[in-house]
UniProtKB/TrEMBL annotation:
InterPro entries: L-lactate/malate_DH, Lactate/malate_DH_C, Lactate/malate_DH_N, Lactate_DH/Glyco_Ohase_4_C, Malate_DH_AS, Malate_DH_type1, NAD(P)-bd_dom_sf. Substrate binds at R110, R116, N148, R182. It comes from Manihot esculenta (Cassava). Homodimer. The active site is at H206 (proton acceptor). One of its GO terms (molecular function) is L-malate dehydrogenase (NAD+) activity. Belongs to the LDH/MDH superfamily. MDH type 1 family. This is Malate dehydrogenase. It catalyses: (S)-malate + NAD(+) = oxaloacetate + NADH + H(+). The keyword Chloroplast does not apply. It holds the Pfam family Ldh_1_N. Residues 32-174 form the Lactate/malate dehydrogenase N-terminal domain.
Length: 342
């Protein structure tokens, strides 16, 4: 809820939260999170993970179908949040009202042989409609855009919000956390270091070569040979396709995406709650390059984006990758902007 500390709760001695947080016995404000597309492959496990998050007090699960069952199921879990299901256009407003964070995994996923851009024709319209409703019912919410192609759906959202007079670049995020999750996993495997301590920034966008992992900045340092860095880069860029092919027509990443989406939403909630030094890579309006939107490390705070951080020092290979990705990323951004203004 936007009014902080309406009902003050403490998490001290609570045995039901599974994730460690930066809270002790201090007050935790009420926060409403809405998931749009909550009955889908990502939506269901993401609903579960948000139900496990002790920072959430109200969880609104919206979809065009099947939400009563998902909501009834998730609502039986004995954690803090109250869960409600909403189905169909007529209930979208109620689902959104009072939301602090809106997570959008609504839309169709890829099948083998498709690019994320092949989803544009269907998902652009879905995202546009949902963002029009966000502008109307919860214009101050932080929007976490998962629906693909993220490189275009985020610009679509920005244009919808501009038209409605509600656009605040600090509150709109393309969720690229799955690229970071993959880069960390793949790097830890090659570098033979415990994955829990690994950090790898991933910048650019969220499709093919627009995904640019910065392994030169990975920690702990491992001094991997160039060929291994190049193979790791390619595997991170093709991570989504690897899952799409393995699922052989039954969709794309859902479980790892739900995990990544839950990490990012948790970071947004921590930022809103005033936890210091919350930094995640995400696709936002940006001055880091000449492109209007770009993923890089972002410091999250009480208003959403607190600071878009620069790229840091890049290797020659990464500099080359950065120049190569720009035309494709710009074209996807412009496609989204054009669609929203048609
Ligand atoms: N950002 C990322 O890293 C990332 C990762 C994986 C998947 N994705 C994308 O997430 C999207 C969803 O993937 P999925 O596997 O969950 O698909 P899915 O088909 O399993 O689920 C999508 C859900 O969206 C719902 N939906 C459709 N139109 C809607 C509307 N107007 N309002 C509300 N809900 C609506 C459907 O009913 C369905 O339940 C896809 O576009 C996919 O490409 C993004
Ligand atoms: O690859 C996809 O189509 C889904 C998602 O963008 C991913 O990276 O897994």
């Amino acid at each position: 809820m936007s009014s902080l500390f309406r009902s003050v709760k403490t998490l001290k001695n609570s045995s039901s939260h599974l994730l460690r947080r930066g809270y002790g016995s201090e007050a935790v404000p009420e926060r409403k999170v809405a998931v749009l597309g909550a009955a889908g492959g990502i939506g269901q496990p993401l609903a579960l993970l948000m139900k496990l998050n002790p920072l959430v007090s109200n969880l609104a699960l919206y979809d065009i179908a099947n939400t009563p069952g998902v909501a009834a199921d998730v609502s039986h879990i004995n954690t803090r949040s109250e869960v409600k299901g909403y189905m169909g256009d007529a209930e979208l407003g109620k689902a959104l009202e009072g939301s602090d964070v809106v997570i959008i995994p609504a839309g169709v996923p890829r099948k083998p042989g498709m690019t994320r851009d092949d989803l544009f024709n269907i998902n652009a319209g879905i995202v546009k409609g949902l963002c029009e409703a966000i502008a109307k019912y919860c214009p101050n919410a932080l929007v976490n855009m998962i629906s693909n192609p993220v490189n275009s759906t985020v610009p679509i959202a920005s244009e919808v919000f501009k038209k409605a007079g509600t656009y605040d670049p600090k509150r709109l995020f393309g969720v690229t956390t799955l690229d970071v999750v993959r880069a960390k996993t793949f790097y830890a495997g090659k570098a033979k270091v415990p994955v829990a301590g690994v950090n790898v920034p991933v910048v650019g966008g969220h499709a093919g070569i627009t995904i640019l992992p910065l392994f030169s900045q990975a920690t702990p340092k491992a001094n991997l040979p160039d060929e291994e860095i190049q193979a790791l880069t390619k595997r991170t860029q093709d991570g989504g396709t690897e899952v799409v092919e393995a699922k052989a027509g039954k969709g794309s990443a859902t479980l790892s995406m739900a995990y990544a989406g839950a990490i990012f939403a948790d970071a947004c909630l921590k930022g809103l709650n005033g936890v210091p030094d919350v930094v995640e890579c995400t696709f936002v309006q940006s001055n880091v390059t000449e492109l209007p939107f770009f993923a890089s490390k972002v410091r999250l705070g009480k208003n959403g984006v607190e600071e878009v951080l620069g790229l840091g020092a890049l290797s020659d290979y990464e500099k080359e990758g950065l120049e190569k990705l720009k035309p494709e990323l710009l074209a996807s951004i412009e496609k989204g902007i054009k669609f929203a203004n048609q």
